[in-house]
Amino acid sequence: MTTTTEAPAKTPLVRLTACDKSYGNIIALGGISLEVDAGEVTCVLGDNGAGKSTLIKIIAGLHKPSHGSYEVDGVPVTFDSPREALERGIATVYQDLAVVPLMPVWRNFFLGNEVRKRLGPVRRLDIDFMRKTTKKELLDMGIDLRDVDQPIGTLSGGERQCVAISRAVYFGAKVLILDEPTAALGVKQSGVVLKYIVQARERGLGVIFITHNPHHAYPVGDRFLLLKRGKAIGYYSKDEITRDELTAQMAGGAELDELHHELQRGGKAAAEAAHVLEEEVQELGITHEPTAGS
Amino acid sequence: MSQTVATPAPPARDERLGRRSALARLLARPEMGALVGAIVIYIVFFIVAAPFREATSLSTVLYQSSTYGIVAVAVALLMIGGEFDLSAGVAVTSSALVASMFSYQFTANMWVGVVVSLVVALAIGFVNGYLVVKTAIPSFLVTLGTFFMLRGLNLAMTKQVTGNVATNDVSNIDGFGSAQNVFASQFTVGGVSIRITLLWWILFVAVATWVLLRTRVGNWIYAVGGSAPSSRAVGVPVNRVKIGLFMAVSFLCWFTGMHTLFAFNTVQSGLGVGNEFIYIVAAVVGGCLLTGGYGSAIGAAIGAFIFGMAQLGIVYAGWNPDWFYFFLGALLLGAILLNTYIRRRAEASR
């Protein structure tokens, strides 16, 4: 990938600065800043309801931030629709992947962007080209499909995820937003997807990797944004944080501690669980802090 | 297959792909169940009914099948696109009534009535489609509503205009002859009379098949039926595709209506009720999934052919025609079971 503008310093592909989003009187997101560089993976971590999906929707162009600035290649932007974001090279791979299970892999790959050739007055699909391209693009991502004519529903979850990723890459994505790509996958399949995330990074793409699993985020991430209740509770580059610290932050040491006390009150079996939990808390090196807010 | 990339060229066939026999690959086609069924039924009638063996009988069966098969083509496309149209049966009659009454009442050239009827038919299709995509109410309910409305309109308007339940004979109106040539003529090949609807039927099936498999719109039809939200997410104009499909159904309803009009000169206003199920049965027997996203136009054609064979074969065999609907129901169940079985096997073999 070539940089077209001679920026004095390295301009991140995507930069959010102090973004807020409120729906009526509900503040879904407050003061979030985030950067994604080319060839970098920025992980967004947070539990359910932390504001991850609101953040994606802002970056993907579904929502506009209430306050704060959103820059792409250093230029402030406001997107009215996901299509505009897509035109700027920001592609989102949602959890449902936007594939049609009964259709062949290659038809899914080109769905909505069909390649056609002219045949007299009418235009027909260039099936041969689309088949070959699908096969080649997937091979470049390291997926060696047996048959691009098989219905995409017959692929495994990880493979389907990868088809969706390579489709976004092929159609000119510079920034990939991956919405919990490993959430519904087993250990092995998750590993496959993580491999493709690294592959996309190696190809010079910026990746925003949404997840609630620090064990998935840490090995591939360059930066980590931790969200909780709509606020950033930490923003680190990889050399500033270890995996255990990340896990501890994510798990919310204070909550774990509280849970431990709760379980201890719950009787014999629960007390045993509490003991295990306590050990884990100590292992992670969580310091006791008063629970903020709640 | 040549490969220009420097990476080790993937072989033309992947070595992990066991060679599926030609038969297994054929069986994976959606219309295979129907084809097998059609052959079996043909053989049965061929054995039990002597008149069935004659070429003229086959011509009659094909004609009968074509009158159902033309609309069934569009109904199959609509079903692949994930929707139903219960108003298709009476819409055929509506089209014929409009053309007939318009030309008769305004003493206009027959072709004016034909064009007015086309506009009305396309409007019906548009309204069906628009209501379905805008309200997100299942098409089953929306078109059930338009079915009853059209049924009432057909009878009430005809009685209002002509004072009768049928339209007046239009065979003396200018342009009747040329319109009849287009919609309802016949010619003789080797002593067997062939109705022109058969040719139209073949043409519509061929066009629909080509559109489905070789064009972008065809891709979109499978996609909106397979998963409308996913299609929308990748930029497929889901609503336009669905409205277009409803209009395709009403276009072929109009065509069949024109055939009815020019074949019989008058139109009974009560005609067509129940035919909507025949179209749907033909599509389903032909391998279309009720849930959308899977099926073929050729399958629907074979489905209509099975229907035509059964309807006339019972007569040729001298069986009591009262049993026809029982037979039809059994046929439908059998075809669906066979389809399901074949599809499962085909998918398992992938």
UniProtKB/TrEMBL annotation, chain A:
Keyword field: ATP-binding, Nucleotide-binding, Sugar transport, Transport
Query: Is DNA damage included in the keywords of this UniProt record?
Result: no
Entry-linked Gene3D superfamilies: P-loop containing nucleotide triphosphate hydrolases
Q: Pfam families annotated for this entry?
A: ABC_tran (PF00005)
Q: Does the keyword Disulfide bond apply?
A: no
Cite the GO molecular-function annotations of the record.
Answer: ATP binding; ATP hydrolysis activity
Q: Which SMART domains did the record assign?
A: AAA
Q: What are the residue boundaries of the ABC transporter domain, all occurrences included?
A: 14-254
Q: Can you tell which superkingdom this protein's organism belongs to? A: Bacteria
Which CDD domains does the record associate with it?
ABC_Carb_Monos_I
Under the heading InterPro entries, the entry gives: AAA+_ATPase (IPR003593), ABC_carbohydrate_import_ATPase (IPR050107), ABC_transporter-like_ATP-bd (IPR003439), ABC_transporter-like_CS (IPR017871), P-loop_NTPase (IPR027417)
Q: Which SUPFAM superfamilies match?
A: P-loop containing nucleoside triphosphate hydrolases
What's the protein called, per UniProt?
Simple sugar transport system ATP-binding protein
TrEMBL record, chain B:
Name a single GO cellular component: plasma membrane
The record's listing under CDD domains reads:
TM_PBP1_transp_AraH_like
Q: Spell out the molecular function terms from Gene Ontology.
A: transmembrane transporter activity
Q: Which UniProt keywords apply?
A: Cell inner membrane, Cell membrane, Membrane, Sugar transport, Transmembrane, Transmembrane helix, Transport
Q: Where in the cell is it found?
A: Cell membrane
Question: What membrane topology does this protein have?
Answer: Multi-pass membrane protein
TM spans, by residue? Answer: 26-49, 61-79, 110-133, 140-157, 192-213, 243-264, 270-290, 323-342
State its role. Part of the binding-protein-dependent transport system for D-xylose. Probably responsible for the translocation of the substrate across the membrane.
Q: Which PANTHER family match?
A: ABC TRANSPORTER PERMEASE PROTEIN YPHD-RELATED-RELATED, XYLOSE TRANSPORT SYSTEM PERMEASE PROTEIN XYLH
User: What is the name attached to this protein's record?
Assistant: Xylose transport system permease protein XylH
Species annotation: Kribbella caucasensis
